[in-house]
Amino acid sequence: MGLLKFKPEQKKQLFLLPPSIEEFIAENHLARVIDGIVEKLDCRSIEEQYSFLGQKSYSPKMIIKLWIYSYCTGVFSGRKIDVKCETDTAYMFLAGMYRPDFRTINDFRKDNIDFFNKIFLDVLQICRQLGMAQVGTIAIDGTKIRANASAKRSKDKAGYEQWKSNIEKNLEQLYKQADEINAQEDKQLEKKRGDELIRKIRGKENLKQKIEKVLKEFENSGRNTKEKINLTDEDAKMMKSKGRIDTNYNCQGGVSMDGVIVAQYVETIANDKEQLLPLVRQVESNINEKPENILADSGYASYDSYEKIAVQNIVAYMPDQEYENREEKQKDLFDRNNFHYDAEKDHYICPHGKALRYANDYIVEERKQKSRVYTCKECTACPLKSQCTKSNQRSIYREYREPLREQARQRLDSPDGKKIYNQRMYTIEPIWGNIKFNHKFQMFSLKGKYKVTGEFSLMCTANNILKIYQQKTKKEAG
After folding, report:
1. What is the residue extent of each domain of the chain?
2. Are 428 and 340 in contact (CB under 8 A)?
3. pTM (two decimals)
4. Above 50 in pLDDT, residue 186?
């Protein structure tokens, strides 16, 4: 034989001793970190639900390991986990060479929502023990994640009534067709038994029942008839995300400067304005420590938000929408923001140098807003009046909490404030980007706010475990 050019294949190479699956997993592998963390978790609340009678069950910790590793690596399907327990050494290691059925895997996730919420808190405490998740400064943000429901099935009351009418007409045709088939001779029935038609009728009848249930929801709950309810997931709402309106959930999060998620929950309201204080409260509850600084975008900004955060003695680095658009507004000479307020004299000065003095108060009860109204008495003779206002005199409304917004703007304009606020784009925004694009978590697998909340907790737990793994890897490398 001549010299071999390539290494010979060793598919039939025998081992002196039977190998352990552990030998195929590197010492610094993510699966080992997850295995060690989950073994420390208190799972007695789940384990006590299992009986000693009958066939032995798979350990809850084993299923938890599989789900956490899957969400860490971008796998969200029980069927895929089932296959990987036979083909992927990391899954084999975590499953202890067992191969649980996909139904068992999926049912565990679906039936233990509260426990996945608890695991998030347990892993967060492990992060704290490792010196991570310090809450001096917290960046908060929301991201829209698609619901497991088609937007086409979101309709208002009129849409559901039309849908029901169309199904009833379609059912009439199917019933008529079924009667014709039943009247056919046996020979003809041998060619077409009619089973397909029966299944179609049952499907339409089930759909009609679901629609009737939603219509009752409109009537009994007093919902706005123009509001859209999704037939597949009633909690999912139509929300705009990246320029596209779809059935989404609004996922909220608070992140420490080292990228650990310290607070998270799922909301069905698209607007972020009401979410600032709940996030702060959850941070304090989860960590038992109040943050000193909050970094948030303009979506959270409102007079109410500025006031509530000030009462909490927390410094907010949070621009309002007018502040973010200030360069565009500066082009309009007579924009409100180009009127200077003199706090000492309590009046505004217009771009033409005229004073707008206090006239009266203006209260909007439903929005809980109270403003001081300033008007100019010299508008009639002003040569720039037509550019400034269409009314007889120019007025400016100054909300009583305006000083809080002005303080936030001054803070953001300072050199230190700019540095602090810029940290936000390097903390929480990359977290959402990593979760949604690197790990491909762009749609929930479960339905309903309660279950979706548990699934989001699982995803956030996976993020925090990856942060632990990264810290461990850096220490070993350094």
Report:
1. 21-111, 157-227
2. no
3. 0.87
4. no
